[in-house]
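Supplementary Note 2. Why include the ligand at all?

Several targets in our set were suspected to adopt different conformations when bound, so apo predictions alone were not considered sufficient. For every target with a known small-molecule partner we therefore ran a joint prediction. The input for heme C is given below.
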Amino acid sequence: MRISAYFVLLFCSLILAGCDRETPPEKMTAGEDIYGYYCKNCHENKGPGANMERFAGKQPMKPYKIILMIKYGFNQDSHSMPLFDQLSEEQADAVARYVVSLQMEHINR
Ligand code: HEC
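The joint prediction is reproduced in token form.
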């Protein structure tokens, strides 16, 4: 009896530990998560800053431009970014909107 209770506990804690694991990137829906997974690190090191604080433009970008840029490689010539064609339409839209919100935070000051 004791032992089986122990196993039940062990089993439950394994399930809980499993839940703790991060959502795999292909299942992410929040722009913030997608940005954190694919974009943030690189921007922090050599781009416009982790939160776009070194973003050069004066106007926040239009989300559709960001979507074209990251998902379809639009204007790839002037950007040293990889393509993210693995993003779904919804994910590209969510991350683009999140990036615009970051840009606005740093522009409207
Ligand atoms: C390999 C590094 C890298 C990754 C990964 C990356 N970026 Fe960038 N990003 C850059 C750099 C560097 C710039 C500065 C301009 C340039 O050289 O393209 C930039 C600029 C930008 C800009 C500003 C564009 C402009 O016209 O000024 C946007 C928007 C952007 N990134 C979005 C994203 C999004 C969204 C992701 C993730 C899906 C992402 N980036 C992932 C390196 C990266």
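The chain has one domain: 23-107. The radius of gyration is 19 Å. Comparable summaries for the other entries are listed in the accompanying table.
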